[in-house]
Each structure stands twice: as structure tokens, then as C-alpha cells.
Design goal:
Layout lengths: L2 E2 L9 E2 L2 E3 L2 E3 L6 E6 L2 E10 L3 H20 L2 H17 L1 H12 L3 H21 L7 E3 L5 E9 L2 E5 L7 H12 L3 E5 L6 H12 L7 E3 L4 H9 L6 E5 L2 H13 L3 E5 L4 E5 L5 H13 L9 E7 H16 L19 H17 L2 E4 L18 E4 L16 E7 L2 H9 L3 E2 L1 E5 L3 H10 L4 E4 L15 E2 L9 H7 L1 E9 L4
Parallel strand pairs: 2-6, 9-10, 9-12, 10-11, 12-13, 14-15, 14-20, 15-18, 17-18, 20-21
Antiparallel strand pairs: 1-4, 3-4, 5-6, 7-8, 8-23, 16-17, 19-22
């Protein structure tokens, strides 16, 4: 097993290593896998370690050795490391954004935002290091003092997706570290580089060896091994509902805590009194931003029939204006899907929509022209005349794909929203304050927006979904530190002698 430090500069076809015990190491198995630019597959981003069970054991041992010392480090001191990390990320923001665009495909404006989320989370969590760790409450008995304190869980396994390669690893890892845990981070194989860069920034900020360990490799074998490891106290996963069910099943066998942030079939409700220009701009952003590859992306538009024709015409016109291409080009509005497999998956839903009898009004094809032939590009796709029971109205597509569902009334719109198995993000466009306050109570969704897109969460507020979109845990905000710690209730009696 070779060890090298520091990490070499990024270049075409760079060889990257795992980060274990504060050192950069090759996998014990000696195998690597390749990651390429989804806009131009001849652009090799790098070769990454195809980690094995032996690498997991190395990471677990390093994390276990570091955990006690890290847990006894005062929380404000842990926060200072995160604050220094924020400054390093900010200094390297443009470099990291460009790397992310090459690795994942989304446009520079979005990758800058992805890195900025990590910066903001690092700053916010640094401040949490100086907040009270529990509460004091009065006792019902005399001469007795009652309080709660927080206690680290131990080793936390974190499994992250490819669509937010820096933001999601940061908003899971940083609160876990602030709470006094050590971490094993397994990023998605399509986008492993930015997680390694996050580790590099934390190391530069002074994070002790072994507190964070990053392993790259296949999600199936590595994910199962980390999830079932007896020395791992918690799993935090962002991924598909199918994978979430498997993780929950494995964790349930050992009563291991798991926090699951899963899929969505997010709806926008457009009522007849809505500002249609605002609704169209928001749906265009929510549906086609990040090429539709967000768990909060707009997938359904539930529109009152009286506004349907005008809304659809304006949405098609807005989508037709989108410039598609390499995200490094500042003129581009929408980049590629993350890989060719996703192109096939999205196109299959186009064929399903046609078979189900929905009306395709725009898109519906991969882009194969000369300027696109090396990339995973797909047209913005819009279906109308979609019934709530159709598969394209119920299943997560995860691409630039919108189903427009007509309804007659507000009550029917809310019924269609809540008919989904998912409950992550919903937006409502209306000028009616009575209906606004009714919708707050009646919509079954963890995130609700009014006159704004289904995307755009803020890092100081809790993030998460209901039903098949999660298992009740919340990320971001002050809730995040609580999710990564145990509560101890303390009773102190001081009776008179």
C-alpha cells in the first residue's frame, strides 16, 4: 500500500487516492476506475481507487482510533477548524467549480452555487460549536436540577450522490464532525473528485488524522459493507428510494440509526390567479436547472384548466430558448446528464409517456448532432394531457422532463399533489392568501414554496421529505447536529443533609 502527500495538482487523467488516517493511499486491491466528462467523454477527469473490504477496515480502524480524542476536543475548537475550512473553500471556489462542471456536467453558475453551499454550511456549523449543547428545565421535585446534553454517536458512515458532489458531502460531513463523530465518506462513483477535495481542504484546515476518511469505489459492495459494519453507529444516505429501503433494512437488523434523504416527484401547482410569467420562469428553473437532476426538481405541473393553454405555450417558449452544451461555456443554460445510462433512462420515460397516451409537445430525444455526439445530452421534454395515474406522473424521472396535469379546482390540485408516494418539495403559485394558508396545512410535503421554484433550500433551515422521500430525519440547520448525536438526560439531586 503506497502513501503520498500532498495530493498532486489536478490535470487530465490524474491518479487519485483514498484518504485514510490522514494519508493519501492506494486501495489494497490495486484496481482503479475511470471518470470522464459527461459533456465530452474523451476528457478523462481521473482514475480513482476501486476500494475493497480491506480498505474499509483500514478506514474504520483509523476512525476508531481518532474518535475519542476528537470527541473530547471542545466543540468551539472543532468549529474553528470548520471556519478555516470555509475560508479555504472560498479561496478555491473557482477551481472547484470548474472541476465539478467537468466531472458532473452542470453549468458553472450551478457549480459555483454548489461550492458556495459548502462554504455556507462550514460557516454555519462553525457557529454551532459555540451554541448550548442541550437545555435546562425545572424539576417537579425540590432540590433537583435537570438538563440535557449531547453525546457523539461514534463512527458515522456517509454515502452521497453525484448530483451535488460538494454540497451534500459537506452538509452531512460537517455537522457530523461538529457533533464529535468521526466519518467514513463514500461519494458516488460518477463524481468522487469533489469529496476528495473536501477532505483536502479539511486536512489543510487542521482536521486531525483519522477524523475524516474518504473511500471511492462501487456503491453496491462498499455501501453494503459500510452500512452493515458493526463498528459504524449511523448511516446517512442521500439516494434513490430503492437504495434507501435496502439501507434501512440492513441497519434495522442491528438497530443502527440511519438518516435517509431519498427521491421526489415534486409538483408545482399553478392556480388560475397565478402570475403566469413568474410560474413559467420558476418551472423552467426548477425543471431544467441541473438538467433536472435534483431530488427537488420540478417534475409535475398541476395547473387549473383555465390557465393551462397559456401556461403551456409560455413554458414551451421558455424551454426552447435554453442553450444546451458544455457547462464550461458561460453561454450555456443546461448541461448534459451525468452519463449515457441516464440518457437511456430518461428516454425510456418519453416512450412510456407516449404509450400511456400523454401528448408530447416538446423534446423527447437525445441530442446526437456533431457538437453533442461525445456527450450525454437530452432535450428539455414536456408532456401535456397527463393523468395523475400515469407512470410519468408518479415515478421519478431525474432528468429534464415535465408532466403537465390539468385539474379543475384547488381541491383537486391538492388531491393530485398528495396522491404521490413521495413528499419532498411542492410549490404553489397563487395570489389568494386564504388558499396559501390552507395549502400550508393540506400539502403532504417536507418543503413547501409559494410563488417560487421547488428548488432553493436555505442552509439554516431543516431539509427533508415525507413518505417515500425520507424516514423523518432532517438535514441542514440546527437539526443536523442533533441528528448526528444522542441526547442524554441528566438529573442532579442535592437534598439537604
Amino acid at each position: 500500500m503506497s502513501i503520498s502527500s500532498p495530493v498532486p495538482e489536478t490535470k487530465q487523467g490524474q491518479h487519485y487516492q483514498n484518504f485514510i488516517g490522514g494519508a493519501w493511499r492506494d486501495s489494497r486491491g490495486g484496481e482503479t476506475f475511470v471518470s470522464t466528462n459527461p459533456a465530452r467523454t474523451s476528457d478523462v477527469i481521473g482514475y480513482y481507487q476501486k476500494s475493497t473490504a480491506a480498505d474499509i477496515e483500514d478506514a474504520i480502524e483509523a476512525a476508531a482510533q481518532a474518535q475519542r480524542g476528537w470527541a473530547t476536543t471542545p466543540a468551539p475548537e472543532r468549529g474553528e477548524i470548520l471556519l478555516r475550512t470555509a475560508a479555504i473553500l472560498e479561496r478555491r471556489k473557482e477551481e472547484l467549480a470548474a472541476l465539478m462542471t467537468r466531472e458532473m456536467g452542470k453549468i458553472l453558475r450551478e457549480t459555483r452555487g454548489d461550492v458556495q453551499i459548502a462554504i455556507d454550511v462550514a460557516r454555519y456549523m462553525a457557529g454551532e460549536g459555540r451554541r448550548a449543547e442541550g437545555e435546562t428545565v425545572p424539576s417537579a421535585l425540590p432540590n433537583k436540577f435537570c438538563m440535557t446534553i449531547r453525546h457523539p454517536l461514534g463512527i458515522v458512515g456517509i454515502i452521497t450522490p453525484w448530483n451535488f458532489p460538494m454540497a451534500i458531502p459537506a452538509w452531512k460531513t460537517l455537522p457530523a464532525l461538529l457533533a464529535g463523530n468521526t466519518v467514513i465518506l463514500k461519494p458516488a462513483s460518477d463524481t468522487p473528485l469533489l469529496a476528495l477535495k473536501l477532505a483536502e481542504c479539511l486536512q489543510e484546515a487542521g482536521l486531525p488524522a483519522g477524523v475524516l476518511n474518504v473511500l471511492t469505489g462501487p456503491g453496491g459492495s462498499l455501501g453494503d459493507a459500510i452500512t452493515s459494519h458493526p463498528r459504524v453507529s449511523m448511516i446517512s444516505l442521500t439516494g434513490s428510494t430503492e437504495v434507501g429501503r435496502r439501507v434501512a433494512e440492513i441497519c434495522g437488523r442491528d438497530l443502527r440509526r440511519c438518516a435517509l434523504e431519498l427521491g421526489g416527484k415534486n409538483a408545482v401547482v399553478v392556480l388560475e390567479d397565478a402570475d403566469l410569467d413568474l410560474a413559467v420562469a420558476s418551472v423552467t428553473s426548477g425543471a431544467f436547472g441541473t438538467t433536472g437532476q435534483r431530488c427537488t426538481a420540478t417534475s409535475r405541473v398541476i395547473v387549473q384548466r383555465s390557465a393551462q393553454e397559456a401556461f403551456t405555450e409560455r413554458l414551451v417558449a421558455a424551454a426552447e430558448k435554453l442553450q444546451i452544451g458544455d457547462g464550461l461555456n458561460p453561454q450555456v443554460d443546461m448541461g448534459p446528464l451525468v452519463n449515457a445510462g441516464r440518457v437511456n433512462a430518461v428516454h425510456e420515460y418519453t416512450e412510456i409517456g407516449k404509450r400511456e397516451g400523454a401528448h408530447l409537445v416538446m423534446g423527447g430525444h437525445p441530442l446526437r448532432e456533431r457538437e453533442y455526439h461525445e456527450g450525454a445530452f437530452y432535450q428539455p421534454t414536456i408532456f401535456t394531457g397527463v393523468a395523475p395515474t400515469m407512470r410519468i406522473a408518479r415515478e421519478e424521472v431525474f432528468g429534464p422532463f415535465v408532466s403537465i396535469v390539468p385539474v379543475d379546482t384547488y381541491e383537486e390540485a391538492i388531491s393530485v399533489v398528495n396522491s404521490s408516494d413521495y413528499g419532498l418539495s411542492t410549490a404553489v403559485f397563487t395570489e389568494n392568501s386564504r388558499l396559501t394558508f390552507r395549502a400550508m396545512r393540506e400539502i403532504e410535503s417536507g418543503l413547501i414554496y409559494f410563488n417560487a421554484p421547488t428548488t432553493g433550500s436555505e442552509i439554516h433551515l431543516p431539509f427533508g421529505g415525507m413518505k417515500a422521500s425520507g424516514n423523518g430525519h432532517r438535514e441542514l440547520g440546527a437539526h443536523a447536529v442533533k441528528e448526528f448525536s444522542e441526547t442524554k438526560t441528566i438529573y442532579v439531586s442535592y437534598p439537604p443533609r
